[in-house]
Structures are given as C-alpha cells and as structure tokens.
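Dear colleague,

Following up on Tuesday's group meeting, I ran the structure prediction for the two-component complex that the binding team flagged. I've pasted the input sequences exactly as they went in, so you can double-check that nothing got truncated or mislabelled along the way. The structure tokens for the whole assembly follow below. Feel free to forward this to whoever is handling the docking comparison.

Inputs:
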Amino acid sequence: MDVLRRNNVKVSGSGTQPMLFAHGFGCDQNMWRFVAPAFADDYRIVLFDYVGAGRSDIAAYDAERYASLDGYADDVLDVCGALDLRDVVFVGHSVSAMVGVLAAKRAPERFAELVLIGPSPRYLNDAPDYVGGFERSDIEGLLETMDRNYIGWANYLAPAIMANPDRPELSQELNDSFCSTDPVIARRFAEATFFADNRADLAGVTVPSLILQCSDDIIAPREVGAYVHRALERSTLRHMTATGHCPHMSAPDETIALMREYLSRRNGG
Amino acid sequence: MAADHGALGVTYDAGSLVDALPCGIVSFDDAGRVVYTNATLRTLLGYDAGELEGKHVEQMLTVAGRIFYQTHFFPMLRLHGSVREVFLLLRTKSGADVGALANASRATRGGATVIDCVLMEVHERRKYEEELLRARRAADVANAELAAHARALEEVLAREREQALELELQTQFSQEQAAELEAQQEELQAAYDQLLARRDELESARVAADEANRAKSQFLSTMSHELRTPLNAIAGYVQLMEMEVQGPITGSQRESLDRIARSQRHLLRLVNDVLNLARIEAGRVDYRLEPVTVGTLMAAVLPMVEPQVAMAELTLVSTVDDGLAVRADREKTQQVLINLLTNAVKFTPRGGRVTVRTLTDAAAQMVLVEVSDTGIGIPAEQLAHVFEPFVQVATGPSRTAEGTGLGLAISRDLARGMGGDVRAESTLGAGSTFTLWLPPA
C-alpha cells in the first residue's frame, strides 16, 4: 500500500522538524494554503488528504475503517509511519483536532506538540452537564442540506459536463466544489464527526497542546474550548479575536502569530 | 448613488434598483459581519432596514445552515473565490425556515474584502429535489426492510434455538422433544441457507434452460424438414416400384416393399410429431380462436376413432352436452381430442369401456371434456411425467410401441396455447381420465 499516494501526501519546506497539517470535515489540504507557507522556512511541511477527501485514492475507502474517528487517526499514523516522522508538530482543524488527540494517545513518541484549532470532543449536547452546541435534529438538518447540495450540484453541473466533453475544467469544478465528490463518503464523515463522543479520550494525553478558540464559533463554542482545556493535561488555551470556525482561512495572520508565539516559547524562546 | 441623466430628464438610483430585484442580496466580510442587505431579503426574512447590518450572517441561517456555512460554504468561498447554486436553509426573524439557492463571490473593494451573496428563494426546484431525496430514501427504506426481514428470520431462528435450549434445561423428560426441536430448527436454518443459495442457482439455471430449449426447438425444426424430404422420396419410389413402372416385381419383393412403406409411414409420423412439438415450443403456432360447440367437435372426432374402438372390441359411451360451446381453434381441438381418445383406446384391454363426458367448472370458468378409460391405469410416480416428450408408460401392453411418445406433450401444449390445459388422473388397475380444459365461448 502506497500511503503517500493514497493520502495525496505533499511534503515541502526547508526545516527539519515536521509540521503535519490535518484538514477538517468538508474540505481538504487546500484549506491550509494561507497558513502553511508561513512555516516553510523553519519546518518540514507535510500536507495530506484523508481517504475520501480531496485527491486521495477513493478506491481505498473502507466504510468500516472510517465509521469512527479512529480510522482517521489511522490515516495520520500511516502518514507518520510512511515518512517516519518524529518530533511532529501536529496542526489539526475542527474534527482533526480530536483525530490528532487520538493519534497522539496511540503513538505519543511521534508527537512534540499538538495545535488544536476549534476542537470539540462531542458536538451533541449531553444534558444536564455538557453543552456541545447541537441537538441531533440539527445534525440531521445538516445531513439533509448536504444531500440536497450534492443532488443540486450534480443536477446543475452534470448536464454541462455531459454536453461539453471538451471542457474538462467543468469536471474540475465539480471536484473542487465540496473538496469531495462522493456524497456517501461525505455523509459518513459527517456522521463520524458529529455523532462522536471522544470526551474520555482527552484524559491521559501526554503531548503538550495549544488550543485556539475563536470567538462566536457556532461549531466549537467557548464553553467547549474551556472543557477541552480542563480535560487535556499540559494544554494552553488562547482565545482569538477571529470569529467563526475557520480562523486559518478568515484570519490567517492571527492564527500564524499565535502558533509562532506558542512554539517559540515551547522551544525556550 | 443617484445619477442625473439631465438630457433625458430622469434619474436612476442603484440602491432602489437593487431593492427592486426579485432576489435577496447580502454583503458581508470574512468574519461574517453583514454590511448590506437589500429590501427583498429583509422582506423575505422579516427584518427592518438596518436591523441585520453589523450582525453575523449566521443569524439568517438555521442551525444546520450555520454548520454548513462554516464547513462548506465559507471554505469554498475562501478557496475558490465564489460559490454557485448552493442550497441553504434560511431562518426568518420569526423562526420559520426558507430554502434558498445562494450564489456568492468574494472580492476586494477599497482595500477591504467583501462577499456579495445573491439568494433566490426556491420553490419548484426544491420540490423536484425533495422528490429525488424521497425516492432515494424509499430505496434506503426498502433495503432496510429487506435487512430487517432477514434479521427477523434470524431472530425467529435464534428464539427457536433458545426455546430448544430452555426446554432441554427445564425438563429432563422432554429432552427428546428439545432435541427434535433443535434438529428442526437446524433443518430450518439449513433449509433457509439452502433456499438462498438455490434461489440464485435456480435463476441462472432457468436462464440456461430457456436458452437450451430454444436451441433444441430450432434444431428439431430444422432436422425434421431435412428428414421429411428423403422420407417422401422413399415413399414415392416404393410406389413407383409397386406400380411396376420400372418392370415386374416378384411376390416377395412386393412384401418387402410393403414393409418399407409401413416403416416409412411410421417414421414420417414420428418426424411430423417432432416437428409439431418443436413448432409449438418455439411459439410458432397460430391459433384461430372461435366459438365452437362440443357437439360439432365430437361429430368430427368420433367417426375417426370408431374403427379403432370396434377393432379393440371396446364400448364407447359419449354423454357430452352437444350445445356447450368453447372458444378454441377447431382443428387443433380435434387433434387433441383424437389423441386423448386414441390413447384411451390403445391402453384399454378388450371388452373395456371408454367414456366421454362434459363438465363445467364454475370457479375456474372453464369447460371440461373428460375422456375416461377402464384401462390398466398409470402409476402415480409416472403420472407426473406422461406429458413430457418421448415418455410412454412402460407397463402398458405391447401396443404402446406404436406411438411416438409425443402425443400428450403436443396435446397439452396446444390446449395451453388456447388458454386451456390437459390434466391427467389415474388409478392403477382401474383406469385413467384425461381432461381437456378450455375457456367457454
């Protein structure tokens, strides 16, 4: 099995310490393009797509393996193994923050730092003590919106593609549309993400971590960031002025600055 | 915004134009802060002017819509600069859901980044998409039901297994019963497994059999034609020799010619039967269906079998209702009746009786013509096979050798071709009854 091809792994940068970026649900490694280049001088940058996302090998998709986040953690560890990465700075967005926690727990020897952007160990509320932010019906609404958009895009673009075989950029547009062309896989990833409960996995993580918490993040609210910080030993919590759930895309400068500051302090700077 | 086109005497205003558009428009920055809305959008969502500005664009979305915005919509916009035809569920100020198609693009204006988004409320398209989704869900449900049936069956089996086990534990007396139950359950399980496996096998076997049957009919049909030509030549030359056209012949030569002629006739009959069966099976027979009374049919048929009846010293009793009418092909029905009667005569010992009578089956709405004999009868295990081509009941007297073994197969195929059937009943030693079923006129 060629992991590098399977996960569309891209390696760049002139540093030696690896910085491994893991994309979140709904997108692919492209989401890092505003942040990753800032670290290229000092680190060895490793980007990849989870199987089923971006330009990964869809044929390698195994519904059973990717039914839970453990399967995605396998992907992270497979990439680490294929490149024999050590001393890794792992940067994970959204669901990948938890995927990084699972990977660091299974192979702590590979990881130096975890940078967790908008982490949430459980998206569903668990009354009365835990507020994840969502009810089951909200997630079902999301799944329906996804279904509808995949149908809509297929209806809208498929005829155009069929009628214009000489214009491959139309197919490319479909490919780029949601960073994943397979609605079934996207739906399963959504279910694995939003119905997961990884609260128990936060205990016993030995790798130090930075939690980047946005303001007004509907997907990972402030209380959830605080919860992760409390449960995760050796974690540092930083609140961002950036709003929303994707600071690495909406506020890359602030994201880069907070990561630099944290990493230089950790390295005795 | 107002521009003065003094020469024309009218002015236009971009703001009022945008408000007049039939679609909602909203502009916001990367952080999602709304900087502009048009009147159409505010009306759609129930907000007053200025109420949405400064708020987060998520305020206009359902919770599901917000997640989708953060995980799909904004990343696409940020990475590709635009999104097209994306479905979003909007939320009005009063909390109602409104489906909308969004087209948006991200641009830099005056040093700041702005996302301009056009929202079209969807009605028709949404209806079709819902139908598509419903169809897909129905398929999912059907699949799930299938799986549930399989599970239910497994549960029944599991329960039976449990019951068997319980029974065994509860009472030592009924140990045998429990074992029996368990055995039955195992049999059931095995039978179920076998059934599943057999179903697939049978299906492919059926396809193969149909194919083979077609090939066989084709082969038989061609071969029969090939055989008939030389057979007719044989008959012709025998006749010429018998007429001494080519010179006088001796008495023993004439006897030989007679044997040749008899053999030729037998062979020709066989070939004709084979050809008929092949044509019926190949579906190449045309039926001329018309109302015809049983009386008419019997009047044509009886004179043809009476010499055989007399020769075999049998009694033929006909109590048919002459006026009863069926809808059938006259010639083919006669062929069937002659075959049934000839069979009855053939298989009934001297002094026996052949009876023909009519019945009507109200439930099936059919007319029945029954031909019974007092012959030797047919063993039950062979009764099922008498309609198969080339099958003759082996226990009959030596006369059986005369037939080709195709008569009943042809008769049943013809009857079925006319919407009827031929069925057989028999009591060994007491006689057989063959019944021709036909639809009434």
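The longest strand of chain B covers residues 97-109.

Cheers,
M.
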